[in-house]
Design goal:
about 475 residues, five-stranded parallel beta sheet, Rossmann fold, disordered N terminus
């Protein structure tokens, strides 16, 4: 008979006035208390959220400040949302000259925030003009198609669109559907969702599909070339497409995929600019009226100017924003700093992220320059891009320094809770793969969780058995 968890027994004494003699005697309430104690023991160490450099947003800073103050949205949430929208609006019109050559202005962003922290609120301002433009243009497109079919009812080609459907942004997309949309639609599109859990937990991001899905996103970020051949879908070959993304997701729901080493080593997560804003303080009840703000009106006017510009068939033909000499020197210094820090210094733990930081800074600088209507990347743009890229680096580093990473602890707690429900709070290790929680029915996830529990003193392994123990 193993010892019951000491902390859980102590909690049970405080509640019921007695101590259970062994784990098998623990009822649902005692097991719940034991699980809560284990959760406190396993909780990752708290890391302070880096301060968001709002002033580095340049032409986007005023609208970000309004969203943060009047909309009571965290600055990082607001900043990520408007920066992603600016990328969507400029990536089909310009390229940017980096130290590695011309690159797209496409940005991938991810913001980790709890439900109720203002994700949808921020998007209503940042993406408002885009969604209105899309609704208007899609309606016109459908009316045109209906008229064409009526005029030529016997024409078999009447069901074929003569012009690409003007979709700019979607809230959800599988890689396969997105590939088809980019092939047949506008060259510049985006995936912006306040519920990225629908993507993260969907079929395309299941463990067996992740590498394939990530490869498509990586290629779109790199150079925007669609080049695939499938038995069912046929051949697709279209250069110069662009994809911007902003995924807003609750940290616990992102846990499993963020911990997937294959997505990190394969370069998928390192292509994302990460923000981890702190939880919001209690908000005050007041009206939010962005249409009355001069900064919002200025931002919306610039968005509409960019939306009204005709997109090319191939964004690789767009003009490239060049660096001024002083901006180039800034980026050259930045590149060498990140090379040393990633390979030999303080950023070795997030090496794949750090090695892309200079290109991220160049892309951000290009987005800011294009949105303000600049002809080149100034030194100020370069400094701002570096600050925003550094914020993302700090968030990734903070996340990496959490004790067990984002997904192992929740899964370990699931295993611990399951063990408490077994006879004598112990089980055959081999039975976990067959009878344990669904997420732990692979050898890798099971062994990772057992390691977490045994390292924390919450369980002990003996032969083919694992038993809860006094920590």
């Amino acid at each position: 008979m193993n010892q019951s968890l000491h902390a859980a027994n102590h909690a049970a004494v405080n509640v019921d006035g007695h101590r259970p003699s062994d784990p098998v005697s623990m009822g649902p309430r005692e097991r719940g208390l034991a699980l809560e104690v284990a959760r406190q023991i396993l909780s990752p160490k708290k890391t302070s959220s880096p301060a968001y450099p709002m002033s580095a947003l340049g032409p986007l800073a005023d609208v970000c400040e309004f969203m943060a103050t009047e909309g009571q949205v965290d600055m990082a949430m607001a900043g990520q949302t408007v920066l992603a929208t600016a990328s969507l609006l400029t990536q089909g019109l310009f390229r940017v000259r980096t130290l590695a050559g011309d690159k797209p202005l496409s940005l991938f962003l991810m913001t980790l925030a709890a439900s109720g922290d203002g994700k949808s609120h921020a998007e209503s301002v940042a993406l408002g003009p885009v969604r209105e433009w899309q609704e208007r243009e899609v309606t016109k497109h459908r009316e045109t198609e209906i008229e064409r079919r009526r005029a030529r009812p016997a024409d078999r080609s009447a069901g074929v669109h003569t012009a690409p459907c003007p979709y700019r942004v979607t809230r959800d997309a599988t890689p396969e559907a997105l590939r088809d949309d980019l092939d047949a639609g506008l060259c510049s599109q985006g995936v912006f969702t306040a519920e990225a859990a629908a993507i993260v937990s969907g079929y395309s991001m299941r463990p067996e599909q992740r590498a394939k899905s990530a490869a498509l996103f990586n290629l779109l970020w790199d150079d925007g070339l669609l080049s695939t051949s499938r038995v069912t879908a046929g051949r697709i070959e279209r250069p110069g497409v662009r994809l911007a993304m902003h995924w807003l997701i609750q940290p616990t729901l992102a846990a499993e995929v963020l911990a997937d080493i294959t997505l990190t080593e394969g370069g998928f997560w390192p292509r994302f600019l990460l923000a981890c804003p702190p939880p919001l303080a209690p908000r005050r009840a007041r009206m939010f009226e962005p249409e009355c703000s001069s900064s919002v009106q200025t931002y919306w006017a610039r968005c509409n100017e960019l939306l009204d510009r005709t997109l090319p068939q191939n964004a690789n033909t767009c003009p490239s924003l060049r660096m001024t000499p002083s901006a180039q020197r800034r980026f050259e210094t930045l590149f060498e700093e990140y090379e040393n820090a990633a390979r030999l210094g303080a950023l070795r733990s997030i090496k794949p992220v750090a090695l892309r930081a200079t290109e991220q800074a160049c892309r951000i600088a290009g987005v800011l320059a294009a949105f303000r209507g600049g002809d080149d990347i100034s030194e100020t743009d370069a400094v701002n891009g570096a600050h925003l890229a550094r914020y993302s680096i700090d968030c990734w580093k903070s996340l990496a320094e959490c004790s067990e990473g984002p997904s192992v602890v929740p899964n370990a707690l699931q295993l611990y809770g399951w063990l408490l429900e077994q006879d004598d709070a112990e089980a055959e290790i081999s039975d976990i793969l067959r009878l344990g929680p669904p997420k732990l029915r692979t050898k890798q996830s099971r062994d990772e969780c057992m390691q977490v529990l045994t390292s924390a003193g919450l369980a002990a392994r003996s032969g083919n058995r694992i038993t809860t123990m006094t920590p």
